[in-house]
Amino acid sequence: MPHLESANYFNQVMIILSGSVVSTALLRRFRLPPVLGYLIVGLLIGPFVFQLIPNPDDLHFLSEFGLVFLLFSLGLEFSLAKMSALRKTVFGLGSAQVVLCSLFFWSILHFVFGLSSEASLIIAGALGLSSTAIVTQELTRWNELNSVHGYSAIGILLFQDLAAVVFLIVIPALAGTSDNSFSFAIGLMLLKGIALFAAMLAVGKWLMPFMFHEISKTRSEELFVMTVLLVVLTAAWITHAIGLSMALGAFIAGMMLGESHFKHQIEADIRPFRDILLGLFFVTVGMQLDPEALITNLHWVLLASIGLIISKTLMISVLAHLLGKDKPSALRTGLVLAQGGEFGFALLTLAMANSLLDPAISSFIVAIIVVSIAVTPFLIRFNGHISLHFYPDKPYEETMPHTSDELAEATSELKNHIIVCGFGRVGQTITRFMRKENLPILALDNDPIRVQEAAGGGENIFYGDSSSRKILDAAGLSRASLVVVTVNKYEQSLKIVHSVRSISSSVPIVVRTQDDSRLEDLKQAGATEVVPEALEGSLMLVTHVMSQMHIPFRRIARMVQQAREERYQLLHGYFHGGHSQLLDREGNPLLRLHPVHISDNCYANGKQINDLRLSQCRVKIVNVQRKDDVIEHPDDEFILKSGDTITLQGLADHIEQAESRLYGG
Q1: What is the rounded (10 degree) CA torsion for 130, 135, 137, 138?
Q2: Taking the complete model, does pTM exceed 0.70, yes or no?
Q3: Whether residues 215 and 352 fall in one domain
């Protein structure tokens, strides 16, 4: 019997993983969040459709682990420094949004639909909170993270994270309390939560850095990962032991480690565990959906989803406008945050575990959140157009083009420019040298995080597939004087060369490769120059590019020699993307570039650079972008102003220290 149970358990996990792979691959083609795929898989394999897993309770243990890692991931993204810099938005607009939306939904559910106060409060919290992961991802993708509505949305999401902590504390207190003991139970839980929160943040500030520093000296990835897992599960166990939810402990553990210098390494190392366990969690949530009941009530699900989106948009827009935002930005903030989110699933799951919510009601609310999440990418993509429709006399700031038509319009005035395909380290090196000669340059990259980072630092970069003929044509290939291919994969480079040659037979193409094994193939495909990487590979590629632009060789030699004399400072650091290498071949951390936007509430606003003592953080300011001007290597007496974007150069943990100092002093 135990053997059969083990085999059955293994079969269930295999079914989940197989379905998740297929659904995620399909949804990525339509650029929809993978969470929708997990939910659909759960719906199909659960007890209501194909009944491949007739009893979802068998996977309760794994779903608990998934919930723990979901909250840990959200906590890891929480930033106390950013919250301090955006404190007016966080505690003003954010608190107003959570209170107003929760009160509105609670009133509707309790007085109109007759639900209990406890159930109404849980559902109101689930609907009032938005999706941090999806909103951040989509704003990054469309380069709106540093816009007015982007900052407002991030500020509200930061307060929602704090509000979620309160809900995670309150839900266990709601279970099994009588009217007389309710206030006492809530007060006791809040007191426990606050004490635990303060204690764990203190541990994270003073004990965790020392412990992880000692572990990192061993250079053992296995030990590092095991320590992270131990910290997360220990925090979850402690909160469970004192009567709070394990999810709360995981969230606080994420906040605790998110403030350490090891945040980026932790994110990279736990990503495989996190993604698999999150998938299992969302699949188990999908198993709770009863399709027959949903189809019967499909009109109500759609009406409720529309009502959720419209009501949240209106409430957030009005609050944002009352607190000083212009009407277009206020409306765009509302559209961006109109959905439900991951915290909603977590709250509903926790409420079900404590028998506070009827499964049918929970299934209905999950369906509403799913629909709202499904339309979120489209709302964020077209929020500017919707705003322009309602306020035609108030044009909005255009977002980063992502379609060939928009890209063509944005680059219509470029002539004799250089198209750089791939904006990794080599592509950015080329751009810096070309900028010194005031040559027009346009970069294409398919990493949305890198595009957002580089665009925030003032680079003329667009998101797009460099091998797409439509994208190349829209980038003005017929008017370009040179194409530089810097991607590090031969197949992709060859595809780009073929695409370029199918449009233009005369434009020079310079291609970077890792070695010379495919040199002849690229030459036959149409490459003008192929530069294999070796010592000073980047400098050699710059020499070929500038030669193609007919710049005198003496000037090229002088600039290259100057770069050598400066110990290759011009080549140090680059804007990192989602898949950038963080360590060199010997395991040493690489320098990186990172843009920081100075807002009204930042400590650095109005300060001279030497007053910030950034040298103590071991970072350098590469440049300052002020409106349309880029000030290279500003002196120590340069005064920073609100609206400036400064580009920092340094190691990841040093940059985080400097960013915290810029935000909060």
Answers
A1: 150
A2: no
A3: yes
